[in-house]
Amino acid sequence: MNSMIPFNLRKILSLSILLVGLQLSLKSQSAINQFYTGISLAEKGSLEQAIDAFQSALQDGADASKVYQQIGSIYLIEHQAGKALEAFRQVGSESSYEQALCYALLNQPEQMLEFLRINLKSSHPTPYYLIQKESAFQAYKSTALWLEFWSVNQYSSTTTNLNEAHYLISQQKYDDAIQVLNPLVEKRAMQAEAYFLRGKSYLLLEEFRFAAEDFKDASSLKPKNDEYLYYVALARMKQGALSKAAVAIEEAIRLNAYNPEYLYLKAQIDYKSDKLEQASQHIQTYCMYFNHQEKALVLKARILLAMNQLDSALEITQQLIRQEQGGDEPWFIRGSIFQNKGLYLQAIEDYGMAIDINPKDPLTWMNRGNCYLLVNDSEKACKDFNKALQLGYKDAYLTIREYCSGTTF
Description:
By secondary structure, this protein is mostly helical. It contains 24 helices and no strands.
């Protein structure tokens, strides 16, 4: 996965690292456990403790480049550019952009530009719009050195187009990005990245089949790129091709045991595939380190609900609701728990709260309609069933036919 980190390093540190399905020595497992602990502590802001955990991971044989990347990122957050530079040097040329940032903060402009030049000549140069936004470089923009550096075009024409696509995606102009990328794909110039970026545009447009095809093409050109495989799995899952999604995410995990988003996605795929025991195992492992993430708690509650472990699911939803986390999801899940327990009035109330937050989920309307039927309020039930049908829940048609005489479709 691309290891380059923009100066907004808190976002990078939110990328957690987890392991699943690999046979490791006890020492290797200990290294990864320490690595997970470091990531979790960094996410929660305990940066000094995170560095200690990463150093323990290093002693146990964790991937040195990944460890030093994280340590360098933490030191940058703490504004310790010298220590950050020492860490990034251990990573090597893959952290050339981060080293340029460190030299900028250390007021060494010539070294800053040298490492920026190295980055721009690499296989993954940082897009120009991100460099222009970078706060560490602001003090240098009016200097002769900076102006001379940029007086020469630092990007090839193909890379310039890829940069434009990056920018358009960041501005949510996905159709425009696709138009920029189409000629690159057709010319097969740097096509893996072009396919990948076009796939991201299709994914964000919810054109999941097209996205999956582009991610697959990118992955076939660079089969050892675990990030491409992750996106294949994500698009396949959203497309509903769950078996293909499972194959892709398992290969991504095999290539890179250090990204927790992969395990989280594996749990999602297994949940949607009704492989509930596997899904439960994966989310439990994930939550050992990332129980502070609301998305992890929501998925855990959904899996527990599907496994009919209602009290455990209820405990999680109560926590999320108290902390005002998870949007409509905790209200929907708790409504489902109450419905399964036969507490229909409580379920109706919770489904109503979920609808207030997200009125476009047809299943919530459908479930509340069923609860209204069970308390003998057919008028309200039929209104909810019709709303579910309007929102695309086709199975509502048969329910309306059975319970709602005189309804106009």
